[in-house]
Design a protein that fits this description.
The protein contains 12 helices and no strands. By secondary structure, it is mostly helical.
Length: 209
């Protein structure tokens, strides 16, 4: 009888181990898309539920897993918003080219640093995603955060230093350039913005810090 119980326990543990080490699971960005852009709890993810791990971890460990996954999923959501800022606003044909409604200098002041910020986010999320693909019971990510803080996050200092000039430029353009103001209203009304203004998107790196 004891041997039977022990064998069943061994089988269950091996099954959990295989599920934990599965490497073909959905990326965090794919999970955001499948969930209409809303971030999920770690414990609600199908991979986690199906693994049976929730029956074998303590409440404190579960809280830790939720906190780690929140960092990863929020970075994915942040990168998604940066992509909207760049593709919908910064790269808009109405802000570039010969018939743009703002001059190259003003466009540079508004958007120049956001490209570097996106590269920073892409590198950071890449390493976080790799950790998620390794195992659904996430190990600590402090090493990843420390590495990027030392090598990759200096762009935030540069971006924040430009924030006052950026904000003044946006206010001036909205009040003095009627073509820019009208174009901006049109762009901001797009469903892609989800009722957020250009100013809200430009503030994202500040809020992320």
């Amino acid at each position: 009888m004891l041997n039977s119980v022990s064998n069943q326990q061994d089988i269950r543990e091996r099954k959990v181990s295989r599920m934990l080490q599965k490497t073909s699971r959905s990326s965090v960005q794919q999970l955001l898309l499948s969930n209409a852009g809303q971030r999920s709890l770690w414990s609600d993810l199908p991979e986690v539920v199906e693994s049976g791990i929730l029956d074998n971890i303590s409440p404190s460990e579960r809280k830790l897993q939720e906190a780690i996954f929140e960092i990863i999923s929020s970075e994915a959501s942040y990168l998604k918003s940066l992509n909207v800022l760049i593709t919908h606003f910064a790269n808009s044909p109405k802000f570039t080219g010969d018939f743009a409604v703002l001059c190259p200098k003003d466009r540079c002041t508004l958007f120049n640093e956001v490209y570097e910020v996106r590269v920073c986010s892409e590198k950071f999320l890449h390493d976080l995603e790799y950790r998620w693909q390794e195992t659904i019971q996430l190990s600590g990510i402090s090493d990843i955060i420390l590495h990027h803080a030392k090598t990759n996050f200096s762009i935030f200092i540069k971006y924040c230093s430009n924030q006052i000039v950026q904000d003044r430029t946006l206010k001036r353009l909205k009040s003095e350039n009627v073509y820019f103001a009208d174009t901006l209203k049109e762009l901001e009304s797009s469903q892609a913005c989800q009722s957020l203004s250009l100013h809200s998107f430009l503030m994202l790196p500040m809020q992320r810090i």
